[in-house]
Amino acid sequence: MPSHTTLPGLDAETVKGYKAVLCDLDGCLIAGGRALPGAATFVRALADRLWIVSNNSSDTARTLAARLVPLGIDIAEARVLLAGEQAVEHLARTSPDTGLRCLTDAPVRARAEASGFDLAPVRADHVLLGRMAAFNLACLERVVADLTEGARLLVANADRIHPDPAGNPIPETGAWLAAIKACLPDVAYECFGKPSTHLPAEALRRSGAMAEDAVFIGDNPETDGLAADRLGMDFIEIKRFPGPANLAATQTPDPAELARC
């Protein structure tokens, strides 16, 4: 039976018996663009046993790995799995050469363009929704029109927020999804990020470890923890922000959204 442990921070000693350690990013290793206490030491201690498995839908593995180096977190691109980039790769395998409305930040858009998608279709076949900093009313109008005309919606991650260094909320992809659902309450969509097992299963495949020989570290039991449980992995919950400042509950999608992941 997989275990569930709660800790106030990262500790390499608690994971020394595992062949692979999958770790969420925001709230565990970084927050608000800064490394959290103990993160750099933890990453160095685990070396190539560590895999970042994140619902980040703005970056690619390359851009994120480059941003982490100045924070003292040095990890190879191949060991970074991000919801936005992996969703593009999923679409490239299952629906190549189609019109894609890619509502993401520039790194993921560039990845989609490199994969051969037409990112300016007259009529989109698919809409990929990620955390897009420039998301606005024009984007909302365009995606509502695409979906009304029959495009299929893939949501990179359904998290409504992620925490800043003080534990305060920063809007996430789920906030944009809520705006779409306000216009189209019955819209059908699939969620790619956690608690879906897409990302952690790929990390296990690349690591060569079995689920029973791996552990998942995250700050949200309803996304990170549920993904771990679905794969039969032990889970370590990080609770850095006590009391009201702990955002694990508030960043969780509602049950209907979780069922789509």
> Total helix count?
9
Distance between the termini: 23 Å
Shape: globular
Overall number of domains: 2
Write the H/E string, N to C: EEEEHEHEHEHEHEEEHEHEHEH
Number of strands: 14
CATH architecture of the largest domain, by name, is 3-Layer(aba) Sandwich
Calculate Rg over CA atoms.
18 Å
Derived from helix and strand composition plus strand pairing, the structural class reads alpha/beta
Q: At the third CATH level, what is the topology name of the largest domain?
A: Rossmann fold
Give the strand order of the largest sheet, numbering strands 1, 2, ... along the chain. 1-14-13-2-5-6
- Major pleated sheet: 6 strands, parallel
Query: Considering the protein shown, what is the CATH homologous superfamily of the largest domain?
Result: HAD superfamily/HAD-like
> So what's the CATH class of the largest domain?
Alpha Beta
Average pLDDT for all residues: 92
Uncertain ranges: none
- Strand portion, in percent? 15-25%
Describe this structure in words.
This protein is α/β, with parallel strands linked by helices. It folds into two domains: 4-83 and 194-253, Rossmann fold (3-Layer(aba) Sandwich); 84-191, Rossmann fold. Helices cover 33% and strands 20% of the residues. The strands form four sheets. The protein has a six-stranded parallel β-sheet with strand order 1-14-13-2-5-6, sandwiched between helices.
Keywords:
14 strands; globular; alpha/beta; 2 domains; Rossmann fold; 6-stranded parallel β-sheet; 261 residues; single chain
Topology readout:
Layout: E1 4-7, E2 20-23, E3 30-31, E4 34-35, H1 39-46, E5 50-54, H2 61-68, E6 80-82, H3 83-94, E7 100-103, H4 106-114, E8 126-129, H5 137-148, E9 152-155, E10 161-163, E11 169-171, H6 173-183, E12 189-191, H7 198-207, E13 214-218, H8 221-231, E14 234-238, H9 255-259
Parallel strand pairs: 1-14, 2-5, 2-13, 5-6, 7-8, 8-9, 9-12, 13-14
Antiparallel strand pairs: 3-4, 10-11
